[in-house]
């Protein structure tokens, strides 16, 4: 991660560590094994990714409370990816025994594997393009589109989680904190949908008011009273703490 200025240590920087400890104690009951390490890495990665995506909509709904965390999305997003890398490595070595057959040809849950692989590629691309320099090279629009693909990766990650942890008659069955992480992922998606719908409704309303004002201006010849509504999200430049938004 390329940081232009020295970073002040803040409470939010301890979130990855806090999540590991919480899951180690309350999810894994202090179990030390490759399998538990793998599950905890997967859950911390997913939880951090969900929190990263949640911060954008939360900052729009309650700017006073959450706007200050927006600049930490890159930090959290890169940590999310790091945990996912650990999870993928442990899964390939200990769960699939480095066997392509087990991963692809004899895998009853191959759909979950494909979903995870595509999600992983998206998170990878997001991570390597999370710098201001990459944003400058790609151009804001393309870069923003890449970053928005994170939501597709989140959907695919949840599908992967659901498919891999669905067991016969028990259905989707995990420990309570597993459900909590799954719910956090769904919450991040729901918040984004609400934020987009609210933004669309606002833009449609502003366009309507502008149209009315232009009409009144044309009819009366008087100065219109409205300024053009500024696009939300502020500008088309590459933000300094780029990435994961
Ligand atoms: C974006 C990428 C990914 C995310 C967010 C993710 C997340 C998760 C989560 C949350 C679980 C459930 C953990 C639990 O409570 O048991 C899981 C399980 C699993 N994932 Fe992933 N995963 C990702 C990519 C991958 C990839 C690429 C592979 C394959 C190489 C993989 C292999 C597995 C396996 C084998 C399990 C089952 C582990 C077990 O039950 O012990 N995952 N993953």
Automatic annotation (TrEMBL):
GO molecular-function term, one example from the UniProt record: FMN binding
Q: Which InterPro entries match?
A: Fe3_Rdtase_TM_dom, MsrQ-like
Q: How does it sit in the membrane?
A: Multi-pass membrane protein
Q: Which UniProt keywords apply?
A: Iron, Membrane, Transmembrane, Transmembrane helix, Transport
- Which Gene Ontology CC terms are recorded? plasma membrane
Q: Where are the transmembrane segments?
A: 12-28, 40-63, 75-96, 111-131, 143-164, 176-197
Q: What are the Ferric oxidoreductase domain coordinates in residue numbering?
A: 42-157
Superkingdom of the organism of origin: Bacteria
Give the location in the cell. Membrane
Q: State the protein's name.
A: Ferric oxidoreductase domain-containing protein
Annotated organism of origin: Candidatus Magasanikbacteria bacterium RIFCSPHIGHO2_02_FULL_50_9b
